[in-house]
Amino acid sequence: MASHLILECMDCGFRQPYHPCSPHCAKCGSQWREARYDYAILGQTLPGKLTTRSFNLWRYRELLPVSNENFDLFMGEGGTPLIRAVNLGMMLGCPYIFIKDERQGPTASFKDRQAAVTIAALKEAGITEMVVASTGNVAISYSAYAARAGIKLWAFLTSLVPGSKMREVAIYGTQVIKVTGSYDQCKQIAAEFARKRGLYLDTGARNILSVESMKTIAFEIAEQITQALGPSRVESGAQTKDPRTGSPLSSEKWRVPNWYIQSVSGGMGPLGVIKGFSELKVMGITDQIPKISMIQAEGCAPMVHAWKNNLDKAEPVNSPRTLIETLATGDPGRAYAILRHKIINASGGTAESVTDEEAYRATHLLAKMEGLSIEPAAAVGFAGLIKMVRSGILHPNDIIVVNCTGHTMPVEHDILGEGWSRDVIVPKPAITVESQEEGLLAALNQVASDRYPCIAIVDDNPEVRRLIRRILQSQGEFTLFEADNGREAIALAQKEHPQLIILDLMMPEMDGFTVLNALQSEPQTSDIPVIVVTAKELTTSEKQRLQGHIQTLMQKGDFMSDELIEEVRSLLH
After folding, report:
1. Which among 518, 520, 507, 514 is positioned nearest to 549, based on CA atoms?
2. Which H or E element spans position 224?
3. What is the per-residue pLDDT across 218-231, written as a single tens digit (0 to 9) for each?
4. What CA–CA distance (Å, rounded) separates 51 from 34?
5. Any idea what the CATH number is for the domain that residue 352 is in?
6. Which pLDDT belongs to residue 125?
7. pLDDT at 541
8. 398 and 288 in one domain?
9. How many domains does the chain have?
10. Angle of the 268-282 helix axis to the 334-342 helix axis, nearest 10
11. How do residues 122-144 score in pLDDT, each as one tens digit?
12. Would residue 349 count as lying in a domain?
């Protein structure tokens, strides 16, 4: 079974072959071990093999604890796209934000990697029954793959898991056990059930299969970033040589991001991702490891609390106070200590927490700005990204990857709030076709009114105009006009007399200051309120020139969509 790897105990250093039915160190009994491969050989042979392989999880099979890829179980796991967040990046002033879209796995979450590798290994070992404790996504992924492999699954779910997720688990034929208690209590009950029955138990971050599966995220990101931005090049004159033959090696290496950001519950994902980037560096395929940022929900953030207080051990949160149940792991156990050591020593990363409200806002923001519907647990990572940009931790030229861990399921009321839809009341059937058509047109007028407030967007950058238009359109309440220079802006203001102008300052020929002077000099346009949105760092004298001529000054890259909307609405009412 997976003879190409050896397990090394983190506590006593003892090495032994891997088998999924041997969850403890044979010498000291520790459950904390790491998989080791022949990195020297793989560093030379693996890149060449990848050129002929499909882009999915199994292209890295030599670095996984499975002897043979089982094509009968394959459902398209891995190979998820890396999407450049153009609108979000423009809004935050960070043009190199990428989203690792794990929603596109077979069951729409990054847990598909864990389930695919684990079920393949258990099938290979002849195991026919297993137990898992879950807050939703893990159980769904395991249920799909277990059904395909003919393995009976017992899923212990906390009663806080949304009913829609529980039903999806059950539809695969999984035996669902609903536990009225916390997730940590759920894990304890599942472990005792597995012990009494002698069944294989998924142990999360302690499970070799789980951690090894997650490192494929790092492998894929490195390949995708290299394809998008080009390889990383070794410093001039620092040519690398093969230590065995002495022959020169390529000076080009795979590129890795400056930052990898992920929402965290028990820490298994970051453990695997750090291991993946570390293995790439050891093999000589990359030359650095990105900084890792772990983001937790504020109502259950034991890792963040321990991190900020420089503690070696996380104090358990016995009563989580978050509505995002999938992140409500109150006791990360030893996983935190390992993560803290690896992040500090290997990457220089950080840990941060965000409120449920910030996560819900990020969910809505990603849908409106990037067309991505993400679950609140994934949105925690994006809310952390926003927080890190605003605090100055992330810099404008940083290459940043955020793990989008799962798809929205279900869309929660807290995200949308009130007024998210409009009603069209179709009149009762009339006698004539003409009157029916008139009635339908009258109904549509309730939605497509031409009496919405008129706003002019003035900016010479079409991408900025598109972004601002998208922010305003997402509310569906405005009539919008655009101008790409100052002269057009003045003509537009005189013709349409908009109720608000959103104006850039830095434009060729006629800048925003000149436009403001022209508008103020004409009685028919002098009363139009103006919001200046600019990338220019204004001097004191320039700010004084704007006083009395504009209502609001907003810096590009330093405001969020809802802040602009709030400002617009305040000026229109």
Report:
1. 520
2. helix 208-229
3. 999 999 999 999 99
4. 28
5. 3.40.50.1100
6. 94
7. 87
8. yes
9. 3
10. 30
11. 999 999 999 999 988 999 999 99
12. yes
495-523 tens-digit pLDDT = 999 999 999 999 988 999 999 999 999 99
Last residue of a domain, one of 415, 436, 464: 415
Q: Checking DSSP bridges between strand 33-36 and strand 6-9, what pairing results, if any?
A: antiparallel
Residues 392 and 271 in one domain: yes
Q: Check residue 550 and give its pLDDT.
A: 87
Q: What would the pLDDT profile of 295-322 be if each residue is shown by its tens digit?
A: 999 999 999 999 999 999 999 999 999 9
Domain contains 398:
yes
23 vs 10: CA distance, rounded Å: 13
Sheet holding 33-36, edge to edge: 15-17, 6-9, 33-36
Measure the CA angle with vertex 357, ends 355 and 359; round to 5°. Answer: 75
Helical H segments across 93-162, by residue range:
111-125, 137-149
- CATH number of the domain residue 518 falls in: 3.40.50.2300
Round to whole Å and give the CA distance between 260 and 461: 30
Alpha-helix residue ranges (DSSP H) falling in 261-416: 268-282, 302-308, 334-342, 356-370, 376-390, 413-416
pLDDT-based confidence at 428, cuts 50/70/90?
A: low
282 within some domain: yes
pLDDT score recorded for residue 346: 65
Indicate whether 242 pLDDT > 90.
no
Q: Which helix (H) or strand (E) holds 569?
A: helix 561-572
Are residue 270 and residue 354 in the same domain, yes or no? Answer: yes
Check whether residue 341 and residue 220 sit in a common domain.
Answer: yes
Number of neighbouring beta carbons within 10 Å of residue 448:
10
What does the alpha-carbon distance between residue 212 and residue 521 come to, in Å, rounded to a whole number?
68
Q: Quick one: which H or E segment has residue 17?
A: strand 15-17
* Higher pLDDT, residue 424 or 343: 343
Confidence of residue 3 (pLDDT cuts 50, 70, 90): very low
489 and 397 both lie in a single domain: no
* Whether residue 441 is found in the same domain as residue 508: no
Provide CB contacts within 8 A for 233, sequence distance 6+: 251, 252, 253
Distance CA 212, CA 220 (A): 14
Give me the long-range contacts of 29-35 (CB less than 8 A, separation at least 24).
Answer: 31/203, 31/206, 32/206, 32/334, 32/338, 33/7, 33/8, 33/9, 33/208, 34/7, 34/8, 34/10, 34/208, 34/211, 34/275, 35/5, 35/6, 35/7, 35/8, 35/65, 35/208, 35/211, 35/212
Three-class DSSP category at 381: helix
Would you say how long the chain is, in residues? 573
Instruction: Compute the distance between CA of residue 525 and CA of residue 91 in angstroms, rounded to an integer.
Output: 29
* One domain for residues 347 and 432: no
Which structural domain, as residue segments, surrounds residue 517? 452-572
The span from the CA of 242 to the CA of 425, in Å, is: 74
497 in the same domain as 356:
no
The single-letter DSSP state of residue 60 is G
Which among 378, 341, 349, 347 is positioned nearest to 265, based on CA atoms? 378
Judge whether 153 lies within some domain.
Answer: no
